[in-house]
Amino acid sequence: MSSALSPSAIAVLGLAAWMLVLLFVMVNQRGLLVLSGKMKVNAFAPDGSNTPDGLGRRLVRAHANCVENVPLLLAVLLYALATGNSAVTDGLALLMLGARIFQSVMHLISTAQIFVWLRFAGFLTQLVILGWWLLLLSGLVG
């Protein structure tokens, strides 16, 4: 077994790592709010709506967006890896990972219209790649 990871395997680990980074930043931000006395430890709304600043709310939403969408990406990547079909996903795996990170970063920067459009471009890139992989892996195109 080769010690080098395929692009698809890197993408799987990268997606998990990115979600973990967002979670650590969110926990750190919330921890600072609690330790500074600005929020009580049991006062956080699940959707982040009562977080005192815009970044905190955007951070919660960026993480939730990963929780909502990353499983689709992981399912297809893991299927390709498990069935020996990672050649199908390898070519676009790192672009897909980059698009996911880009989408989250745009989400964190601002909710200004240009950033929402940029965020959508990152999301659309992921959807197109995912759809293409599903067509290829199902044998409908190829």
Please explain how this structure is put together.
The protein is 76% helix and 0% strand. With 142 residues, it is mainly alpha-helical. The model has no long low-confidence stretch (mean pLDDT 94).
Biggest beta sheet summary:
none
Compute the CA-based radius of gyration: 18 Å
Strand content: under 5%
Question: What string gives the helices and strands in order?
Answer: HHHH
Poorly predicted parts: none
Shape: elongated
Number of β-strand runs: 0
What's the tally of helices? 4
What do the pLDDT scores average to? 94
Structural class: mainly alpha
Distance between the termini: 28 Å
Q: What percentage of residues falls in helices of 4 or more residues? A: over 70%
Gist of the model:
With 142 residues, the protein is mainly α. The chain has helices spanning 7-35, 54-82, 86-109, 113-138.
Detail the topology: elements first, then pairings:
Elements: H1 7-35, H2 54-82, H3 86-109, H4 113-138
Features:
142 residues, mainly alpha
